[in-house]
Give the backbone structure.
Amino acid sequence: MLDEVNYSIRCPLRKEKGWKTEWILLADGIYSEYNVSSLYFGGGKMDKLISIVIPCYNEEKTIDIICEAIQKTMEKVNDFKYELLLINDGSSDHTLKKMQELAKKDMRIKYYSFSRNFGKEAAIYAGLCNAKGDYVVTMDADMQDPPELLPEMLSVLETEPYDSVATRRVSRTGEPVIRSAFARMFYKLINRISDAEIVDGARDYRLMKREMVESVLSLTEYNRFSKGIFAWVGYRTKWIEYENVKRIDGETKWNFWKLLKYSIDGIVNFSNVPLMISSYLGIIMTFISFLAIVFIIVRKMIFGDPVSGWPSLVCIITFVGGIQLFCMGIMGQYLSKTYMEVKKRPHYVICCTNDDEAQKNK
Ligand code: UDP
Ligand code: MG
């Protein structure tokens, strides 16, 4: 058989980037086209299933477009089977209705509808929990994560020694200037104070092998920050860069306060540095107040004037009070996260789905 396999004719690369194929002689005079990598890994590509996870919150205007774009793209890599997991994150518009219509037309589309808005992180988690694919990709519904990149990402995992292909936008054109400035500050800060390296401009658009998905799912924490989790689990990751694409329709779901909360979550989940800062501040303030006491005692003994200077005293009390509240706030953040973790509440509740085997709350 080995001789027969070696008796192969190398074909030029097929249209889809990176697919190397060979014609293999199966029996006398009968040839069949095989993907080289699938020969090496055993089993054809046709055996592999790709799960595409899309969190959707009020995306009635974009959902048809993204599904069509994915269907078109996946036709180009028709050697793979795929399933499309649409997660309705408690939308108040007609997103669910649209999903149900799409699922009626295409058996590969599965929808999972939350009982309320649980947030994008919960939607991604639900998608990963219910995905059955050998490869799993997460992407936004608004076409900001171009589906056209999928064939290239798949080819990387098939032919190169990587476990994951992640994407990063190199520009932020079209985004409000203040949001970009805060985002850059956030990435600088979090990379300084946390162990997990979080790439500036990293999207949640990422293709992963099953092993990596299992590792991501093994982190069952309630407060999820996917960018940090992906970085924390490690694995060999190839980064693909692209220019920022504007949302095709609808509006971003993130206002300033939501983003601020998201960045605080990211920092608290992946770093203990704020707690250390509050301890250091405590030590520094104790030291300063000790010096001040010594200064006041010495001054009283030399000049005998204990009363003057009360305005500065008030300033100092308020200042110290402020720092104390700040430090308590930091501790409160960690305490509240711990409180949510120990409750062990499910990340999401699915109230309506067309997948009989769905994990309805986890
Ligand atoms: N999303 C979600 N739940 C939310 C907010 C957003 O599932 O509570 C989804 C949204 O439908 C989209 C993706 O997360 O598919 C990214 O959202 P958006 O485009 O508003 O974020 P941006 O691209 O502005 O960061
Ligand atoms: Mg978007």
